[in-house]
Write a structure and sequence with these properties.
The protein is α/β, with parallel strands linked by helices and 163 residues long. The chain is 34% helix and 16% strand. The protein has helices spanning 11-21, 35-44, 60-72, 91-96, 109-124, and strands at 2-7, 26-31, 48-52, 81-85, 101-104. The radius of gyration is 15 Å and the shape is globular.
Length: 163
Amino acid sequence: MTTILAAAEAPWVRDLVRATFTGPGQEVVEVERGQDVRETVAALEPDLVILDLQIGNMGGVAVALDLRLEAGEGRLPDVPIVLLVDREADRFLARRADVDLVLTKPVDPGILRRAVRDLLATLERPSPGTGDGGAAGDLDAGDVVREASDREPAEDREAPATP
């Protein structure tokens, strides 16, 4: 079962995530407040966290930084983070948050689904040369393979903006 944590104050954002990912083998858990994300990640260990930039009293950037710091100290699992921003100019903030994927709202459900599928597939691939089945020849030029300790900047993994 794939568990996705959606953190957004705006009901329409949570509705979008729920409608996009609710189905067989998938569960969407919702929180409305940024300060509830850490506790929920600790309790549920979701496969993915989707954060809205605009979350009441603790924005998406602060939540992402908090999750990364806690994971870095071993207090939380290191989970992939998608940040939904309000405009293209907000991508600058997203780069500072060490997120795995940035999408600009409103995002088409099909684009969101494909971007998340591609992100999770990329993160599940074994690293080349580790002896666990991965080989450099298995990767395409655009693939990103990384360890949790050496994240790449978010600008290298941005999905195309919705029209």
